[in-house]
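Person: Please comment on this record:
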Amino acid sequence: MAIVYRDPIVIAELLCTQLLDETVMDRIAGDITDAMRNRQPPLLIISFARVQHLSSMALRTLLNLRRELMEKQGQIRLAAIRPEIREVFATTRLDTLFQIHSDTEEAVAKMQVWLRLVKGNR
C-alpha cells in the first residue's frame, strides 16, 4: 500500500490485486490507522485502481475503518473501483454507506468541497 498525504487528506492506494487474506487486511488497516493518527478531522480516500478481487474480510475491514472515522467526525471515500467490484458493493448495498468516485482526483475534489462546507458552518 502507498500512502500519499494531500493535507489534510490521506490517500491510501491499495497496491495488491487481491484483497483475500486476513493478514494482508490487518496490515492495511493498521497502516491506515497509523496514517490517520492525530488528524482532525480524519479524511481518507482509498484507491482501488489495482484491486481485482476482494473478500468479505476486506469489506468488513472497510466497514470498521468507516465506523472509526465517522466516530471522529471524519470522512472515508472510495475511488477507482473496477465495475466487477463495484457490483459487489451494489449487491451488498455498501454503495449506500460509502461515497464512491470514479478516480482519486474526483474524490479529492469532492472531499475538499465537503471540508469547506463543514468549516463554513462552524
Notes: The longest strand covers residues 2-6. The beta strands are 2-6, 9-13, 18-19, 43-47, 53-54, 75-79, 99-101. The chain has four helices and seven strands. The longest helix spans residues 104-120.
